[in-house]
Structures are given as structure tokens and as C-alpha cells.
Amino acid sequence: MRFKTRGALLAEVLITVAILGILIPALGQLYWAVLRGKGESLNKLKADYLVWEYVEGARVIKDRGWENLVNGKWSLSTETGKWELVSDPEVEMVDGFERGLEIMSVYRDLAGEIIEDGGVLDRSSKRVRIRVAWSSALGQREEVEDLLLTRLESMVWIESLRAEFEEGAMEFVLVTEEDDGELQLAGGCIEGGSSAPYIFDDEFGDGWKIGPGPNWPQAQIYAGESFSHDGDYSFRIEYPHNLSWTYIENPMEICTEGFRKFRFWAYNDNAVDHRFGMRTGLVVGWLEDIVLPAQEWTEIVVPYLDINDGEYGSFSDIYFRIEDADGEVNVYYDQMELIEGTGGYYNNGVFISDVFDAGVETVFNRIFWEASVPEGSDLGFQVGISSDVSGPFEFFGPGGTSELGDFYTDQEGEGISWGHGFGRYLKYKAYLFSGDGNETPTVYSVGINYVP
Questions:
Q1: One domain for residues 316 and 397
Q2: Which residues fall within 8 angstroms of residue 251, CB to CB, at 6 or more apart?
Q3: Phi and psi for 93 in degrees, rounded to 5?
Q4: What is the pLDDT of residues 124-178, one digit of tens each?
């Protein structure tokens, strides 16, 4: 058996004391850290609760009225029995915690994403930043919560009645039905388009003929003249004196609708220029001051509606009159035809609605409609928004451009392009298309969803 010497025992004691001298402070620090950690966890729980209270308070204030969310720094109070914004103080103290909130506007880029700098004001969203701060043994601490509030309630404007549609502007579009209005392309008097878009080319086209001469002694028409612009024959009108007139007729009622222009070539056989006029039997007035130079073939292109005094419908006849003759005048006519269309329905037309007034600056969210779009036809919309009732209204599609083809096309509804959806006044523009004149889209109603 061996025994430690006194010196060895003393050394072990000194080593033990040294170890304890190291461990005891460390254990003490660990103990106090645990205590501080427990306290900090409790502070964190308190801070989370204080944040949650303000989140709920802000939502309650929003639900009472969107106008209550005023930009600025606030604290919340329930002294009146309900949550209210209080500007004094901006920050409240609750058991050693500072608590406040800031209400800020929201801005978005053209894709609708929220951005910090620049962009377009989103009038239907607010950012609420809630901050709770406190001091602890670990230093200054804070909890920050960003809350996005949106104005959920919205309103709808719908246009569907004949009287409403008739307030709009139409180009080659008609309002049909007496009460519940419908928008359609004008024309459509036959299926498959006109069977003969030409009226005269060497001979009169199907259904066309010279008017009954004996009843109209002022002027005479002679067909089969072997003098023509292109081909073998033309027809000649002999005008015996100033303001004498005659006509060709369409007794078989061949459809002439769906064409935008009426074109022909004319030759004034006299040595001086002359003016002449035209009209159809549907109207009383004359389309005057068409100038025919002396002794040369001249191409004449006249808008279809100008001859018809702005009215749609097929030509039942076409009247010709000399305007400034001193004596007899002979005029040859050739290659008379209808152009810029396929016949039947017009190939395209545009409807622009009357101005809708939302009453205040508004976020226009969505456009939707009810329509029938048969195969062979198409339909698209653009929207124009302004802060002035007189405009300007720059129409745009979902791509944010006014280009033809940038259309809203989903009748269930499409979101109006960000960056263009803010203002007080709105018009929509409907584009109606028919590929071959056989079919037309039909619009029954158009609606706009908006948040005032």
C-alpha cells in the first residue's frame, strides 16, 4: 500500500481550487443567462401579443370605413369603446413597451407588384406597419409587423339596355332589340355576302338594270357602248340639260350591305369639267360636287354611307344628276362596284360607350361582358379612363397599349391593366369582327367592377 506525501496532497488541493475558480463564475453566468433568456422569452410573448392587438384594431377600423385609414403615425385607443386612431401620443407605453403604427400608401408597378419607389398609387390598398419596442438585458429590442389591408367591397356598373347603348358612338355597329339592347355589326341582309359586288363591268351585274326610261324623260341611259375604261363596254348617260337625272335600279334586292365604298370610273365627253351628284332612292338629298375632268377617265370612290345619307341598308337604286351643264352632256360609266368588304355583315366595326361617372376618383378593377361569338367572328375590348369628363380617353388593353390586337377577350372578366385603372370617368371600346360577313358577334351586356 502506497501513501501520498503531504506535498502531493497539497498540489491536488490547489488544482481543485483552480478548477472551481474557473467553473463557478461560468456556472453563474450560465445561470443568469438562463434567467435572462426566460425573461426575454416572456418579453417576446408580450410583444407578440401587443402587435396582435394592433393588427386586430387596424382591421376593425378598416371594416368600419375605408376612409378611416388615414396616412400617418398613430397609436390606437379604446377609450370610446371602440378602436380609434390617436395622433397624440403617436407612441403609447404599455408596461415598459413602446407601441405605435404607421399607415402608408401602396404603389405598384405596371405588372401589379408592390414597389417601394415610384410606381402607380393603388387607391384600394394600405400598408400598416406596427412596431413594438422594449429595453432588455440584451439591449434594445423590437417587433415589426407589416400588414396589407385592401378595400374588399366593390361596385359594378352594367350597361345592357337599348337606351344605354344608344348613348354611345357607333361605326358599322347597330343596336338591335327594342328593350334589352344588343350590339351587332351592321349589315347582314344575306348569308354568305353579296352574290355580285360589281354593279357594272361590260354589262350590268345580277339584279341590276336601267331604270324605266319612259318615266324619266330628263336623261337617258345607253348600255353596251363600245368605249370603256377597261374591257369592252361601258354605259352612257345623256344629260340634255342642267339638273337632268336618271337612275339604275336593283329590283331583285340584291344585298349591297357590308361594303364600305362604292367605286367606278367615269368619262366626261365634253371639253370642260363638269360636276354631278348621286344618291339612292332611300334618301332625298344628293351627294353633290363630284368633279369630272374633261375628256379623261376618272376614278370615283364614294363612301357607301355618304350615298345613303348615313343610313345602313342595301341600295335599291342609284340616281345620277348633272349639276352645272349649259347644254347636253354625255358621261360614260364603267367598272362600277362595291369594295372594302365581303358583303353581308361588315367585316369590322367599333362601339364606344358613353361616359361612366364613378362619382369620385376610383380604382377600376375588372371588365366583363355577356356575348355570343360564333365561329368566324371575334370580339375584343379596350378601356379608356380619365379624371376629366371631357377626357382625353386613351383606350388600352391588358398589355397597357392602344395597339389593335391588345384586347380584353375573356368575357368572364379580366383585370384592368395596372397603371391605367385610376380615374373618375370611364369609357369602353368594343371591337366587333366578322371574317366573311356570314356571322356577327352579339354583345348583350358590358360590366365594370370598381372600388370608389
A1: no
A2: 207, 209
A3: -105, 130
A4: 889 999 999 999 877 889 999 999 998 766 789 999 999 999 999 999 999 988 7
Q: Which domain holds residue 264?
A: 198-339
Domain-ending residue, one of 339, 369, 395? 339
Cβ atoms of residues 155 and 452 within 8 Å:
yes
Q: Which residue has the cell 348600255?
A: 223
Residue 129 is assigned to a structural domain of this protein: yes
Residues 281 and 374 both lie in one domain: no
Q: Are residues 202 and 335 in the same domain?
A: yes
Question: Which burial class, exposed, middle or buried, applies to 335 when counting CB atoms under 10 A from its CB (0-12, 13-18, 19+)?
Answer: buried
Average pLDDT over residues 78-91: 90
Cell of 371: 356575348
144, 131 contact by CB (below 8 A): yes
For residues 417 and 399, the answer to whether their CB atoms sit within 8 Å is yes
Q: Write the single-letter amino acid at 83.
A: W
Phi, psi torsion values for 303, nearest 5 degrees:
-60, 135
- Classify residue 346 as exposed, middle or buried by CB count within 10 Å of its CB (0-12, 13-18, 19+): buried
**Of 27-36, 130-139, 186-195, which has the strongest mean pLDDT?**
130-139
Which residues, other chains included, contact 110 with Cβ-Cβ below 8 Å and sequence gap of 6+?
120, 400, 417, 418, 419
